[in-house]
Amino acid sequence: MTPTEAAAIALQDHAALWSMGEIRASDVVHAACDALVAGLDTPGLRILAACTRAEADYDVHDLLPAALHELGLAFYPVGSEAGQEAVARALARRMLAGELTPREFTFRIHQRHGHEMPLTERLAELDDEYDILEYGVRTVDEVDAEVTAEARRLAAHPTVPAEPTDPRS
Q: How confident is the model at residue 144 (pLDDT cuts 50, 70, 90)?
């Protein structure tokens, strides 16, 4: 994966996480800065990256959709099913990167979606398994391994474009 592809995926993940209330607007601005450093460059991305922490809470809402559009990335409306799935995939990538433990990952998925979202149903079941480990025959390592396999499945979703798609370019 090239640095620009990784930066595009990271920006897409941050956008999804922000639109679903998982992270702060300033985290999106940091991801925009990282995307610029990695070689992605559009007018909207530059404006987004230039936001201060104080401006981020007010301006990201208006700036992010245009910046994502210029890069050919998706903006997920708050509460949308596609956005919820994008958040699950973003959290899976964070777990695989070591930012979340398998237990934290399943807990967050289970807490957010319960057993309602087909994409993450198995993760909710695995979160339940963590709760009953002392009564069963499985070990933490076995459940962790299955969670990791599920995270890999989610993270294997097709990646986002790495090059800007602004028609004005």
A: very high
